[in-house]
Design goal:
By secondary structure, the protein is an all-alpha fold. The chain contains three helices and no strands. The radius of gyration is 13 Å and the shape is globular.
Length: about 80
Amino acid sequence: AFGFCCQASNGAPRTDVKFGLGAMATGNLLWIAQYFNKYPYHYIERLMQTAVWIFSDGRNPASILALKDSSAARLRRDVATQLGV
C-alpha cells in the first residue's frame, strides 16, 4: 500500500499526525490510483508523488522528472493524455 501527500505546498505531516480512513477519491485522483495499481512497481516513489500533485495541486505534467527511464516518459504522456493536454 502507498500513501501520498496531496498538498505539495504543505509538506509532509508531522510524526504525531493520525490518519484514518476517509472518503474514496474520485475523478483524476482515483484515475492515478488505479493507474499505479495497474502498473505496480514500475515507478519510483518521487515520480508517483509528482503525479499525485499534478492532479491535487494543478501542477504541469512537465513537472514529472525527465529521467532516462522510459517509464517516466510513459507516465508523463499518460497523465497529459488524461488531462487532455
